Amino acid sequence: MTTLVEIRDLRKTYQTGSVRFEALRGISLDVEEGDFAAIMGQSGSGKSTLLHITGGLDQPTAGSVRVGGTMLQAMSERELALFRRAQVGFVFQFFNLIENLNVRANVELPALLKGGQSRRDIHRRCSFLLERLGIADQANKYPWELSGGQQQRVAIARALINQPALLLADEPTGNLDSASGEEVLNILRQFNQQGQTILMVTHAASAAAQADYIFFIRDGLLVDQMPGGDEKAIAQRLADLR
Amino acid sequence: MHAIWQKIWADLLHRRLVSLLILGTIAAAAALLTLALITLFNLEAPYDKSHAELNGAHLWLHFKPGRVRAMDIRQIESLPQVTESTGRQFSYTTSVRFNQQRVPVSLRVIPPEPPRVNRLRLLSGRLLNPGEDEVLISRDLRDIYHLGPGDQLEILRADGRRVTLPIVGVVYDPMYDNYRSSLPPYAYLSEDLLASLFPDKSTWEWSLGLRLADPEAVQTVLEQIEAMRTVTFIASHTDWRDVRSSAIFDAQMAFIFLSAFSFFAILATVLIVVSIVSSTVLAQIKQIGILKAVGFTGQQVLGVYVGQYALLSLLGTILGFLLGLGLAPLPLKTVTASLNTAYRPPFNPWTMLIVFVAVPGITMLAAMTASARGARVNTIQAIAVGGETLLKKSFWLARVLERAGAPMPLVLGVNDVFVKPLRSILAGINLTLGVMGVVFGLALSGTIRVYRQNPALLGLVYDAIVTREQSSDDRARRLIAQAPGVEAFYGEYLVEAQTLDGRLLKLRAVEGDMEAFPFHILEGRFFQPGSSEALAGKGLLDWLGLKVGDSLTLVLDKDDGPQATWVIVGEYPEPADAGQRLMVSLSSVRPLLKHTDPSTYYLKLSPSADPQAIRAFLSPRRESDLNFTLMEDVIPSTVIYLQVAIFALAGILIGIAMVNILIMSLLSAQEKLRVVGILKTVGMTPWQVIFMFITSASFLGMLSIAAGVPAGLVLTRNLLNLMADFTGFGQISVSVGKAALLALLPFTLFVSVLGSFLPARWAAKVYIVHVLRKE
Which of A102, A113, A142 sits opposite B682 (nearest CB)? Predict the structure, then answer.
């Protein structure tokens, strides 16, 4: 197995006026290619910050992040943008679709930004993903015409359109009812089974149970790691962290 | 109430830049309105001030030589309306020579002591020294022939000897009408000097200036004077109100332009305010919901927004009003400078009232309309959903561009224009106003160039003028026909005439190679030579309420002179007497009057003609009386001044438009932070974000060009024709260079890019994590 994500002694400090807040206090972890990893922790533990830095949305204060052999902390704004469009896909809790673009346009957007592919190929890839996600019949609809579950599937399609090495999901089921949430997790699991590496932040044990292994974070530190699968055990571990 | 004030201050301080920009725009609009009103209210003031300072006459009578007696003068001075008189004034009309030119001049006697009535104002140099042989000149000689103190006039005395007189000063005469009058320019000298030049006092002309108890009673007094004798003894008269109209002509044009531009500025301000308030309300719908949830009533929400704009508009109006007061002397400067008087318009409470009602009133009304929407918002929905985009579907053009393979930032930029259609329309109209202002300036510039190249459009169809004094008409014609470089010419005899109801006017009775001159016929056709057909100036048709096809009967030469009727077959741009002249065939006048030999000849020269050679041919000897004048610089310099003023005002409008684009982009950037965050997340680079914002503004810029160019041309045509009507000139055909119009496209795009660049850069730098966390 090859290590896709390599994080070493990662630190992130926020300074607002005289108030200093250490969100990450030296985290080190690896995610192998093809893995489905979850990050769990209480609100404010630093799990989203870790995800954002891993995806090149934020820069660490110290430490290093290497994704697919690329060191992120030395990159410029533009290089990070190019990295994001090529190497990672994001799925957010609140979907973050663009309201006045229809489903197809939302999904194709990262591919069109990336360029290097014909429109036909992009169109074909988009149709394939929409088909896989069961929303092919919604292609010409606008986000506000879809249910939450459908919107999240669109977000997943958008995240995968450029066939990224890493899919980052931040509470992907947090804004969904349980049935929709389960569907989304199943979809993520299916893509993972086909080789897609996934790093997911969640505070739901049922979601984390889908992952191959789970990192537990508390107060900006990696405090534990366990395999996925056993929802009860995960919930217990999470409770123990409080 | 305290809560409302607290919220108002918080909002204003939170959006410092936007607040400052709105403040500046309101101040600009208030300043322009103040300037326009002050100009309107004080159009006549500089002349009135100057007239009062110089105790100017209200009526000036020019008597027919030999017809007036000393007792007539005394009788006129004793009329009840007459309060003061200049006393009998002597003058003598002759030609003076300077710089190889001969120009007819009225030599006017001034007493050793300054007269009580109609004093002269010294513009440069000094007044006459007693006993010295020297002259003063009127400012027309200075303006037209560039003469001044230190120059000399050469005069042919009655005994045939030439004398050279030094010019020691330039003066302004409050009763010399430089526009409507056909009098020659004035030169002033002592009675002794005039007597030494032209000793035969019976050849001197008499005139009289009167001050009246009621300055508006000029016509009544004139009728009383004319009724005094059975014979006509008044050759012409000057009404002080006509002189005033001429003096304020420039200021009236300035007023027309200022009014148009202040209207634009206020419109732009309204658009900005409506646009900003709408956007602010929309952006703060969630906050309004929270305000209402904590107890704000709809009225209080309205108060928060109206209060913000009330504060800004009051402050902006105060600043603009003060700026307008400071700049107020500028539009009147051409008038005051020519009168050599300093005039600072006084404080006028009406100006203040209008400005302080109009500007804050319009601003607050706009704010009220927009924020009423915020006040009506459903609290629960506002808190839950917040503001929604107005247009939820993508714009068809964006879809077309996307299918055509256009870059995504371009597609998204075009699409963004239609996400907030109302605001885009408002910003677009604003930019359109700026474009219209520039088109106005360009069209005026182009029109002036065309008229300069083709003076026929101004009614000046000739290249040069020759006037004769003692030489016979035959000799003059023979010489002109033989002169090198003269292609064609026609002669003109100017006939004094009056309508049957007593309105005085002049007829141009012409004869010669008329077909060789490019007369610009505005309507109808040229008259048939030898027929009883006539061309009429636009001013004459308007004045007498006539149209092409009508007949006009006139009494020629004097009250009891012969009558003749002409059919008006065409309209032409008459440059003199406010267009109130008629042009007829000389042969239609010849049978009616004794002396009809032309004294003025209009020449068409070949392109290679040498004016110096023609002048030398026509006047080989110094005492020759054929005066040759080349027509140059037919566009008055005041028009150039106006052109500069228009470009300056257009600059203000462009500035306002740019502020609007800036505000629009700023608000758009604020509202779109989430979308920008998403786009950056999926890989949009900072430059692509900037490009997207600039695309929106540029697209608006292009739409503004499409709307602003035709609208600007229509505006220019209407404004210029309003002015042309005002001067009795007729219709003006507007010309504008295609290259200049094409250059407008990159210019407007530049303005749009400049206005949107800063907000775009700010949006491009947005910290994605913060934006997405606000969810």
Answer: A113
| Intra-chain end-to-end CA distance of chain A, in Å | 34
Q: Measure the CA dihedral B298/B302/B303/B305, to 10°.
A: 140
Q: Which tops the pLDDT comparison, A152 or B432?
A: A152
Tell me the residue range of the domain where B93 lies: 50-247
Please give the structure tokens belonging to residue B171: 């003066």
Question: In one letter, which amino acid is B32?
Answer: L
Closest to B768 (Cα-Cα) out of A27, A51, A24: A51
pLDDT digits (tens, 9 = 90+) for A69-86: 889 988 888 899 899 988
pLDDT of the residue at B93: 87
Sign for the pseudo-dihedral over CA of B172, B175, B176, B180: positive
Q: What is the DSSP code string of B689-754? A: HHHHHHHHHHHHHHHHHHHHHHHHHHHHHHHHHHHHHHTT---------HHHHHHHHHHHHHHHHH
Give the separation between CA B556 and CA B563, rounded to whole angstroms: 6
Based on the domain organization, do B436 and B544 belong to the same domain?
Answer: no
**CATH number of the domain where residue A226 is located:** 3.40.50.300
Q: What is the pLDDT of residue B390?
A: 46
Inter-chain CB proximity B678 and A98 less than 8 Å:
yes
Mean per-residue pLDDT pooled into runs of 10, chain B (775 residues): 75 79 83 80 77 89 82 90 90 83 85 84 88 89 83 88 92 72 81 92 89 91 85 81 71 62 67 66 68 75 83 92 84 64 76 89 80 69 52 76 86 83 75 78 74 64 80 89 91 89 86 86 88 89 89 84 92 78 92 88 88 81 69 54 63 72 73 84 90 89 88 82 62 76 85 84 83 62
Q: For residues B223 and B159, state if they share a domain.
A: yes
Q: What per-residue confidence (pLDDT) applies to B232?
A: 73
Strands A166-170 and A88-91: parallel
Question: Is residue B555 within a helix (H) or strand (E), and if so which, with residue range?
Answer: strand B551-556
Q: What is the DSSP string of B57-124?
A: -SEEEEEPTTT--HHHHHHHHTSTTEEEE---EEEEEEEEEETTEEEEEEEEE--SSPPSSSPPEEEE
In 3D space, the residue among B95, B65, B64 whose CA is nearest the CA of residue B158 turns out to be B95
Residues B664 and B769 in one domain: yes
B656, B721: one domain = yes
Element (H or E) spanning B125, and its range? Answer: strand B121-125
Do B686 and A81 count as a contact with CB atoms less than 8 A apart?
yes
Task: Enumerate residues 6+ apart whose C-beta is below 8 A from A143.
Answer: A95, A97, A98, A99, A101, A103, A106, A151, A154
Of A52, A77, A99, the CB nearest to B769: A52
Nearest CA to B683 among A34, A10, A108? A108
How many domains, in total, are found in chain B? Answer: 4
Domain that holds residue A43: 3-241
Interface test with A, best of B396, B681, B684, B766 (most A CBs within 10 A): B681
3-state class of B637 per DSSP? helix
Mean pLDDT (chain A) is 91
Q: Is the pLDDT higher at A54 or at B131?
A: A54
Q: Which pLDDT value is given to residue B189?
A: 93
Provide the CA B579 distance to its chain's centre, in angstroms: 17
Secondary structure of residue B53 in the 3-state scheme: helix
Of B391, B769, B775, the CB nearest to A100: B391
Sort out which chain A residues have CB atoms less than 8 A from B775's CB and list them. 92-94, 96
When divided into structural domains, chain A yields a total of: 1
Residues of A within 8 A of B391 (CB-CB) are 100
pLDDT of residue B634: 44
Cα distance from A196 to chain B (closest Cα, Å)? 18
Distance between CA atoms of residues A149 and A182, nearest Å: 10
> Are B769 and A57 within 8 A, CB to CB?
yes
pLDDT at B82: 92
Would you state the pLDDT for residue B584?
A: 94
Q: Which of B660, B661, B680, B667 is nearest to B764 (CA)?
A: B680
